[in-house]
Amino acid sequence: MLLKSGGTSVASSASAADIKTAFRRKAMEYHPDRCKLPNATTLFQLVNHAFSVLGDPESRARYDTSTVETSDTASPSASRRAAPDPIRCSVCNKVSAQPRYVIFYRVYSFIVMTRREAIQGIYCSTCAEKECLKATAFTWALAWWGFPWGPIYGLQAIFTNLTGGKRPADINARVPAHQAWYFAAAGQMDVARAVAEQALALALKVSPGKDDETARLRAQLDAFIASFPSASRTPQLKDTWALGRRPFFVQTGILTAVVAAVAFFALRPDSPSFRTTPDYSYLQNSPSKSHQPYTPTPPPDSQSPANAVDFSNQSTPASSSTTILSLQQALAKKPSTPPKPPYVRPVLAPNGRSWPITEGYIKGVPQKYTNGYSEITIDNGQNEGDVFVKVVSIPQGAKAFPIRQFFVPAHGSFVVKKIRAGTYDVRYQDLDTGAKSGSPSFELTETSVPGGIEYTHYELTLYTVANGNMKMRPLADDEF
């Protein structure tokens, strides 16, 4: 069928782009500035009116079905006297008992440009499924590349297509009414009655008083159905337009997969949106002892790691006053270990002085090994908790001990300067949770070169354990 308006003709199955091209050509042809015909202005106005009608999906739907006749559905006998042409699918051109007028949408975007097109026509259910899936696939691929309307129009189109497209009830009541007339004229009375009842159900969905045409159609369908013998049996037609059909499940599956993928990437543990305040409290449940003996008290300045003497491991010589207890006596005298009290954030530093207001050394704690060049940067910028940090020297053949002790607030950092060459590690306590952690040992070196000394600048970033720049180990209380 051809639509003729304003002196131009386009097929009823023409796309929005075809209509726009055809009417743009006619608008140029009949523009009063170019056309010399005496009625050029009238023709130009007709072209614009036709484009405004066919450019709106619902107006075009009414225009496409304006030739659908329903006036002879008053009785089957009248239908047999005036056999109409059947309504055919606009894609496959087949006659079906349940054609519907459906409007699908597809959207494509490019940067700031977004276009929404209507794919519409009278379809059989099989062709409607294909058109629906094609429009949705097109939208999934091309709707998102324009801001801001691309995603908005794209989601609207996807959900409209998901529910079977837009099917105006007043228009779709006329389509099966016409088919009922055709089947009655063809002598298929059972099918004609079943289709007429579907048409009446659609007509009843239109609000009463919305338009006189639908009210007349309801009266005609009532009379048409009543004209059949009361004893005749109405066959039950399978509703091929129900919501739970293949396109619904295919599109729902795609939508679910996309939502699941977005949720996975947004909520995975290493995603920035998932990262929360670091919690080191679990480290206290499984402390592991370091192989290096440790003392929290540094040796006197006169001792260096090379000549420091450790007397703590030497045995006490036996004397006449030594009392040797039996194992049974020792066990009997061993005091019971009281339960560990819950952690409470300390108000003062371990030496009884106040914590620094900003990052800095603990007042009253001596600084050791200050005759070097190397530096250590402690970055606490990723964490929500304050930390108490110790740089620990690990001398060979002697106990490890702290050489610097300082405070770093949440989201802060601190640079430890003038450290002599040697082996060190960093140990710190999260003051919010009480958890103690330690880094692997590392070397600070100093090398004489022409013009100066090359030295090590070591950087340690304190993240959660999973995201740190090195693997931390939990510490026992006597290792800190």
TrEMBL record:
InterPro entries: DnaJ_domain, DnaJ_domain_CS, DnaJ_subfamily_B/C, J_dom_sf. Residues 70-84 have a biased composition (Low complexity). Signal peptide: none annotated. Residues 277-294, 303-329 have a biased composition (Polar residues). Gene3D superfamilies: DnaJ domain (1.10.287.110). The keyword Chaperone applies. Keywords: Chaperone, Stress response. Pfam families: DnaJ. Residues 1-67 form the J domain. It comes from the Bacteria. Residues 62-84, 277-347 are annotated as: Disordered. GO terms for biological process: cellular response to misfolded protein. PANTHER family: AT29763P-RELATED (PTHR43908:SF3). This is Heat shock protein DnaJ-like protein. It comes from Rhodanobacter fulvus Jip2.
